[in-house]
């Protein structure tokens, strides 16, 4: 049997090879990221604090887009075969600039051991065809007809995916067949694109056209992880590859790295065949796929995330008043004033998630551990190791989407959007969309309880209670 995690690792590698063939600039991105990672690991003794260099080097996240709930459920089945579950709900429809009529989740492993083995993720977006801000009833109906005619995933692939989920893996011959079919399902289709239909959707949104205007889905981007994203941004430019206008997410500063910083090279014009209104086939090009890269930091608690969101909103307000100011410097100044400057502060203020571990060999002198986290950390009873952020930021994702669009699209803000939340997305997928905060909190809580049990700190265990209550 080929176990689930090996299927996932093999799928990520093969997908990366395929995408590098289709988008050569992605191979350049991997080369630059790999060199920077080696350089950082060679000079920084804490380079592996948020993951081993082998994990960081192998780490990828992909992105796909689907048009219907049936397609989403089928994609979920394939990812379930790889030990990947829907985590988090992201609504990208409400940004101030650009029309992105999708809601999204990320399929990824959830267990610590599985993430350490291979943390492959796929950010998966669903077109919201019933949202009247983007699609009127007639266009929704025609989209439904078009999407209903296509088949993204062959029945044999879906059957193998069911078996792999049930058996936690596949026999070698079936595993090979599954991987071959799964990678092929995400290749760029050679089928001609109906130029008139694609253009109609593109006026609404380039993302809508990329989903509903083509015969199949495809990998939209495949993202490596880098340990110094600012260095990568400059080096890609030196290679002659045009990057988007800025790095999304928190600013670079001298405090702890938190959440996620992302950027990408701009979508490239790729040759495509078009079917013209008279039925003839012509050559053309589309700009829909780009090369994203990410730097991951520490996962924040709900309180920490609220502070982050407030800082981003205040940065926006200041930039609106002073549009010629440097955004990074504006954000950095705010962060230095109000955001915790050390991991210790993040831990004791419960602004971020950590695993906790008893300090080995420390003489206790008959003293009992204190019943509070600050005392346990300051007194040297526990050490805190940061939990890496495994998820995404809707604002950053929408920002990168918009930076790579061919136009602003259209959206009727006078109309009300279709309500959509994690519960409705769970119903659409047929599987629960997991709360990332709950996953991090459970990991932190397990480590803390194990550490206190090792210390024999029953009173402290009872006093600490739940470090991250449910919303």
UniProtKB/TrEMBL annotation:
Which major enzyme category is it?
oxidoreductase
Q: Which InterPro entries match?
A: HGLS, YdcJ_bac-like
GO molecular function terms attached to this record:
dioxygenase activity
Task: Fetch the Pfam families from UniProt.
Answer: HGLS
Gene3D superfamilies the UniProt entry points to: Uncharacterised protein PF07063, DUF1338
Q: Which cofactor does it need?
A: Fe(2+)
Could you list this entry's UniProt keywords, alphabetically sorted: Dioxygenase, Iron, Oxidoreductase
Q: Does the keyword Oxidoreductase apply?
A: yes
- EC assignment: the record states 1.13.11.93
Spell out the family assignment given in the record's similarity comment. Belongs to the 2-oxoadipate dioxygenase/decarboxylase family.
| Name of this protein | 2-oxoadipate dioxygenase/decarboxylase
Species per Swiss-Prot/TrEMBL record: Streptomyces chattanoogensis
- Taxonomic lineage of the native organism: Bacteria, Bacillati, Actinomycetota, Actinomycetes, Kitasatosporales
């Amino acid at each position: 049997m080929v176990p689930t995690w090996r299927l996932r690792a093999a799928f990520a590698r093969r997908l990366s090879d395929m995408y590098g063939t289709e988008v050569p600039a992605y191979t350049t991105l991997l080369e630059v990221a790999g060199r920077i990672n080696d350089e950082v690991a060679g000079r920084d003794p804490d380079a592996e604090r948020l993951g081993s260099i082998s994990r960081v080097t192998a780490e990828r996240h992909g992105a796909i887009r689907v048009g219907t709930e049936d397609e989403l459920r089928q994609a979920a089945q394939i990812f379930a075969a790889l030990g990947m579950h829907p985590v988090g709900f992201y609504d990208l429809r409400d940004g101030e600039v650009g029309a992105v009529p999708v809601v999204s989740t990320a399929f990824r492993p959830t267990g610590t051991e599985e993430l350490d083995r291979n943390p492959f993720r796929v950010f998966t977006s669903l077109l919201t065809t019933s949202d009247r801000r983007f699609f009127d009833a007639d266009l929704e109906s025609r989209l439904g007809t078009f999407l209903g005619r296509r088949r993204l995933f062959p029945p044999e692939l879906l059957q193998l995916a069911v078996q792999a989920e049930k058996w936690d893996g596949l026999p070698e011959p079936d595993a090979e067949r599954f991987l071959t079919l799964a990678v092929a399902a995400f290749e760029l289709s050679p089928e001609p694109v109906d130029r008139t239909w694609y253009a109609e959707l593109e006026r609404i949104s380039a993302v809508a056209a990329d989903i509903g205007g083509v015969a199949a889905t495809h990998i939209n981007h495949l993202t490596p992880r880098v340990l110094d994203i600012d260095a990568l941004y400059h080096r890609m430019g030196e290679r002659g590859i045009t990057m988007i206008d800025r790095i999304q997410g928190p600013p670079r500063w001298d405090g702890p790295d938190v959440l996620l910083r992302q950027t990408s090279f701009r979508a490239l014009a790729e040759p495509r065949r078009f079917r013209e209104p008279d039925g003839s086939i012509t050559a053309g090009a589309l700009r829909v796929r780009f090369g994203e890269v990410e730097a991951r930091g520490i996962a924040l608690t709900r309180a920490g995330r609220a502070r982050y969101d407030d800082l981003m909103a205040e940065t926006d307000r200041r930039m609106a008043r002073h549009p010629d100011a440097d955004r990074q410097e504006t954000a950095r100044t705010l962060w230095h004033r109000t955001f915790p400057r050390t991991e210790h502060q993040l831990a004791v203020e419960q602004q971020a998630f950590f695993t906790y571990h008893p300090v080995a060999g420390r003489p206790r002198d008959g003293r009992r551990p204190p019943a509070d986290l600050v005392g346990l950390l300051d007194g040297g009873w526990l050490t805190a190791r940061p939990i890496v952020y495994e998820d995404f930021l809707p604002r950053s994702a929408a920002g990168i989407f918009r930076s790579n669009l061919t136009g602003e699209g259209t959206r009727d803000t006078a109309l009300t959007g279709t309500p959509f939340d994690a519960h409705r997305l769970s119903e659409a997928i047929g599987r629960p969309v997991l709360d990332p905060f709950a996953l991090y909190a459970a990991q932190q809580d397990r480590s803390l309880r194990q550490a206190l049990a090792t210390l024999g700190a029953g009173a402290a265990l009872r006093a600490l209670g739940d470090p991250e209550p449910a919303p």
